[in-house]
Design goal:
Layout: E1 5-13, H1 17-27, E2 31-32, H2 41-73, H3 81-84, H4 86-89, H5 93-124, H6 133-140, E3 143-151, H7 152-165, E4 167-173, E5 177-185, E6 195-197, H8 204-227, H9 232-252, E7 256-258, E8 263-271, H10 275-285, E9 288-292, H11 308-312, H12 314-317, E10 322-323, H13 331-346, H14 349-365, H15 371-391, E11 393-394, E12 397-398, H16 415-444, H17 451-468, H18 482-497, H19 505-529, H20 531-554, H21 559-600, E13 605-606
Antiparallel strand pairs: 1-8, 1-9, 2-8, 3-5, 3-6, 4-5, 7-8, 10-13, 11-12
Helix pairs in contact: 1-10, 2-9, 5-8, 13-15, 13-20, 13-21, 14-15, 16-19, 16-20, 16-21, 17-18, 20-21
Length: about 625
């Protein structure tokens, strides 16, 4: 749900302005509307610092993982850097950050030098232990050396011919090419169809020695970075502090100055449930304020407040946009559908089990930041297990063929069932979205503005009932029955003549006719979009079955080798299929949510999230 907000219009004396903003930042409950903000040079520098601290935290986090992995590979117990270096290496985090910054800059220089040397070594190595000073001696003696490279097959085809004409010597060769030199009298360039190379300027071994020295220096700088790992949290916290400072400066520039710049006007927002705390601070500061509820014209910041289950799906909803203030937060409503659609798309109990176990591992090892992702993964994995068993698939194995499931093999869903289920889920979600739209419009404008949507719902529900009820043995309501035509007529009348209450009936009819055309084509396309659930689930199951057949069909009859080959094909095949199917199962339900469901529910978005002045703390 969307947290109710209160609007505060604030009038401040200019001398009290900064102190007042500092008090609001300490309170951490008021979002000040930022207007007319233009970045200054100091603020641009501040943003650069914030990004540098953010990158420092990320780099040190990755470095810490690398160190832990290296310690694990060596079979040694990892010792916390905080306990061994923080108290002796740097007196405080500022000194540590300066050391980190200098080491990082030096490391970039050294890596550039190492890359240059590596390229030189690659160019010099084919020529072996070469003394460049001998080139000048030979040249003074009237002999020039020319350096070439050529594909080995072509070199061998022309070698005898060239050897008869020139003094040719092969120096080295690799898997593709041969490197050779040709000696000729001074200034007589040989006529050889090969790629000329620059004459080496040094022995590659001297360059390798230089590269080894650079690597030692890189290791020294890396050790300095490792010594900064205990200060990673301090760096990240400093980045958050600077972010708060930047926010405060933005707010400071947003006040409207009046009465010869003596008074400053601000607009602020706070959760309605926190108004007593906010007003207590306003009274203490002596600020003059007016309090009122938001109007439809206001750009109100949005703060979502959902239960434990719905909060997990805010991560999905944030990929699109926040709901506009005054409308309905659809998170709690699309969450169960998203979970079901994910399971429908992946549709393999084995894959679902892997996802659930992966989510559990992430929950135990990932830390607080990944709790929501871990729980969402476990929920989607659980839904996949359920749909996998309903469809009779476990790592591509058809459960209907196993003796243990012989008694219930007729209960598994077949292709026709899956197609029908996908369409049924789509129709149900669209109707559910229309119901939510009716509720939202009723709250905002009144029930009479919902007649057009209600008319559509009546037509759709009555048509479905007239089509399905006779097949279920219920008579009296069919497509040819008067009862159906009465219901359909009522729905059409509401759609065509009651879509804009208070307007001329002819205007309503014209608008309703146009809207009906758009809605018919739109709803038909929306319903057909849900076929993707059936198609994605079916394709993933078929690929899993194919990989199983390949694994057992291509393995040789040699006992140990056959088992290894089978295992390799299964791991690679199912790994690829799991990755691609999981990606599709993540994206396509999201598309159905943001396009089909949001449209049917009348979703309205905003880009302004509730962002109060506060002192941020690292999670």
């Amino acid at each position: 749900m969307i947290t109710p907000m209160m609007k505060y219009s604030l009038i401040l004396y200019h001398n009290d302005y900064q102190e007042f903003l500092t008090r609001l930042q300490d309170l951490g409950l008021v979002d000040i509307t930022i207007t007319n903000w233009e970045t200054t040079d100091s603020q641009r520098a501040l943003m650069t610092q914030i990004e540098a601290y953010r990158q420092a935290g990320n780099r040190l986090r990755e470095l810490e993982k690398e160190e832990a992995a290296q310690a694990s590979d060596k079979g040694t117990k990892q010792v916390s850097p905080a306990s061994t270096q923080k108290s002796t290496t740097y007196p405080d985090s500022k000194t540590a950050y300066e050391a980190y910054r200098q080491a990082l800059a030096r490391l970039e220089e050294l890596n550039g030098e190492l890359n240059r040397l590596t390229k030189e070594i690659e160019e010099l190595q084919p020529w072996g232990a070469f003394d460049a000073s001998q080139l000048e001696s030979l040249r003074e003696g009237g002999i020039d050396l020319y350096f070439y490279t050529l594909f080995t097959k072509e070199y061998e085809a022309h070698r005898d011919e060239w050897s008869q004409r020139y003094a040719l010597s092969e120096i080295s060769r690799d898997s593709l090419r041969t490197y050779f030199i040709v000696a000729t009298p001074s200034r007589e360039e040989p006529e050889i169809d090969a790629q000329p190379m620059k004459a080496p300027t040094a022995d590659y071994r001297s360059k390798q020695a230089e590269a080894d020295q650079i690597r030692d220096k890189i290791a020294e700088q890396r050790s300095i970075l490792v010594g900064c790992i205990p200060y990673r949290e301090a760096f990240e916290q400093e980045g958050l502090r600077l972010t708060d400072q930047l926010h405060l400066e933005k707010v400071s520039q947003s006040g409207h100055k009046e009465a010869d710049d003596i008074l400053i006007l601000l607009e602020g927002w706070a959760p309605a449930e926190k108004q007593q705390e906010v007003e207590a601070v306003l009274e203490e500061t002596g600020a003059f304020y007016l309090k009122e509820r938001p109007t439809p014209e206001d750009d109100v910041p949005v703060l979502l407040k959902n239960g434990k289950f719905a909060r997990l799906f805010e991560l999905i909803g944030n990929f699109y946009a926040l709901p506009k203030y005054g409308t309905m937060d659809l998170t709690r409503y699309f969450g169960p559908f998203y979970m079901i659609f994910f399971g429908f798309c992946l549709a393999d109990a084995g894959y679902g089990l892997l996802l659930a176990l992966g989510g559990l591992y992430l929950l135990l090892k990932g830390g607080p930041k990944l709790n929501s992702v871990a729980k969402l993964t476990m929920l989607c994995g659980g839904a996949t297990i359920v749909f996998g068993f309903l469809m009779g698939s476990f790592f591509g194995i058809d459960l209907k063929t196993l003796p243990i499931f012989a008694g219930i093999k007729d209960k598994f869903l077949v292709t026709d069932d899956l197609f029908t289920l996908a369409i049924a889920l789509g129709i149900f979600q669209l109707l559910f979205g229309m119901t939510l739209k009716v509720i939202t419009i009723t709250r905002q404008f009144g029930f009479k503005y919902t007649f057009s949507t209600l008319g559509w719902m009546i037509v759709i529900v009555s048509s479905l009932a007239a089509y399905l009820l006779p097949d279920m043995g219920v008579q009296g309501f069919a497509l040819q029955s008067p009862a159906y035509w009465v219901c359909a007529g009522i729905g059409l009348f509401m759609m065509l003549f009651l879509n804009s209450p208070g307007k001329n009936p002819l205007v309503n009819f014209g608008a309703g006719l146009w809207n009906t055309y758009n809605d018919v084509t739109g709803i038909l396309g929306d319903v057909l979009s849900y076929i993707r659930l059936f198609a994605i689930g079916l394709s993933g199951g078929i690929l899993a079955l194919v990989f199983n057949q390949l694994a057992f069909g291509l393995s040789p009859d040699i006992p140990v080798v056959g088992a290894i080959v089978t295992l390799i094909i299964l791991l690679i095949g199912h790994g690829i299929n799991l990755f691609m199917s999981t990606l599709s199962s993540f994206v396509h339900p999201m598309r159905l949510t943001f396009v089909e469901f949001y449209k049917s529910a009348g979703f309205e978005s905003t880009q302004r999230a509730f962002k109060p002045l506060k002192h941020s703390e690292k999670d």
